Amino acid sequence: MRFPFRAAGLLGVLLVVGLGCSERSAVPEVDEAALTQEADHMIGRFSTDLKARLQAGMREGGPVAAIEVCHVDAPRIASSVSATGDWQVARTSLKVRNPDNEPDAWEREVLADFEARRAAGVPASELTRFEVLENAAGKPVARYMRAIPTQPLCVSCHGAELAPAVADKLDELYPEDKARGFSVGDIRGAFTLRKPL
Asked: Strand pairing of 128-134 and 88-92?
């Protein structure tokens, strides 16, 4: 998951004073390639497990069952994967289904950049960003985001036209749901990871 600054290597890594602030300065030396590889590995584990469970839910009970899987299993999978390493794994979007997944200021900035780059023709599957930021305690934290492309499986529950039973279940579980209206290839959201350095 990441952005055009990756090519700049260590010189392109920026430190943000206070998460979401626009002031930036030099950062400690980090191995961006190694950290990115670690983060991608964690994302692979999360997405593979979640996709397998969603597909099983679709086979067993269609989209309504898949909504239950996402509602119950996605947070558990994220916690389980996060517990196996130093990265905290989550998902966010500009159009969240679960309000607990609202993006912070930095994530919102990255998601807006992803949308601009997607509009310019960059496939969602190629959109990533890595940065080192300073947390509220003044400690460096690696942050990494990878866009989540909308797949055919996703539009049953995130598309523009939902079956009435699907819409009813979403309204029941997520009364503030904004995560509808997507088409295949759109940026559904992003995996977002952080690791204290």
From this structure: unpaired
Summarised one tens digit per residue, pLDDT across range 47-98 is: 999 999 988 988 998 999 999 888 999 999 999 999 998 999 999 999 999 9
pTM here is 0.82
Q: How far apart are CA 156 and CA 81, in angstroms?
A: 26
Q: d(Cα 78, Cα 189) in Å, to the nearest integer?
A: 15
CB distance 17 to 24 below 8 Å: yes
Q: What does DSSP assign to residue 95?
A: S
Q: Running DSSP on this structure, what letter comes out for residue 182?
A: B
Q: How far apart are CA 150 and CA 61, in angstroms?
A: 21
Nearest partner of 6 among 113, 148, 136, judged by Cα: 113
Which pair of tokens denotes residue 149? Answer: 């492309």
pLDDT digits (tens, 9 = 90+) for 157-182: 999 999 999 999 999 999 999 999 99
